[in-house]
Amino acid sequence: MNLDFSAIADSIPYILKGIGVTLEIAAFACVFGFILGVLLSLIKLSGIKPLQWLADFYTSVFRGTPLVLQLIIIYMGIPQMFPSIDISPMPAAILAFSLNSAAYISEIIRGGIMAVDKGQSEAAQALGVSYTSMMKDIILPQALKNIIPALMNEFISLTKESAIVTVIGALDIMRRAYIVGGATFHYIEPLLVAGLIYYIIVLILSYAGKLVEKRMRIGD
């Protein structure tokens, strides 16, 4: 098999433009997923059985079904159920990835909270600190320090998995590589370029995660 990258050289800038779309999806999904994940983790630890059951059910559904299925259901299902709503690929992708990520992040945060010494919460309760203040000012800050590597791994996973938005037409890195392949009849070369771009992004994010983790250890 002969590879001819010169045939797609002029199209590489077009593929590179997909980096912004890929990172935008991953970043928004990580932020929204983190917010919802915190709420889910607190519900799971609340002791309120009906809410705990709902949170566990949510987590099991989004962790137990393929992300691509969730993406397609949101993209195609929302307009079908609500004809007045026309959802475009980007909002559908961000919504699907946020809901999916929240299920995983909630378990990460729950584990981080449970890893905090129980003496911290007992001391706070003895001093009359409210549950909300205790979580916000004492427990969650300590838990977050312990789960930074896991959260960074989740962001990296979101970045790689965002390639599936190709199925709904979002112009991310992978979709643009497909378009270039169809236009030039050279399919392997643009996919290899896309793979290299993803690899470099993951290397950069992994390095950034190690720097953040190192700084937090120094801060301790």
TrEMBL record:
Entry keyword Cytoplasm: no
Keywords for this protein: Amino-acid transport, Cell membrane, Membrane, Transmembrane, Transmembrane helix, Transport
Any one of the GO CC terms: ATP-binding cassette (ABC) transporter complex
Pfam families, per the entry: BPD_transp_1
Residue ranges crossing the lipid bilayer per the database entry: 25-45, 57-78, 187-208
PROSITE patterns linked to this entry: ABC_TM1
Any one of the GO BP annotations: amino acid transport
Membrane topology reported for the UniProt record: Multi-pass membrane protein
Highest taxon, organism lineage: Bacteria
GO function term, MF aspect, one: transmembrane transporter activity
Subcellular location(s) per record: Cell membrane
Family stated for the protein in its record: Belongs to the binding-protein-dependent transport system permease family. HisMQ subfamily.
NCBIfam families per UniProt: HEQRo_perm_3TM
PANTHER family noted in UniProt: GLUTAMINE TRANSPORT SYSTEM PERMEASE PROTEIN GLNP, MEMBRANE COMPONENT OF AMINO ACID ABC TRANSPORTER
Protein name per its UniProtKB record: Arginine ABC transporter permease
Species annotation: Rummeliibacillus stabekisii
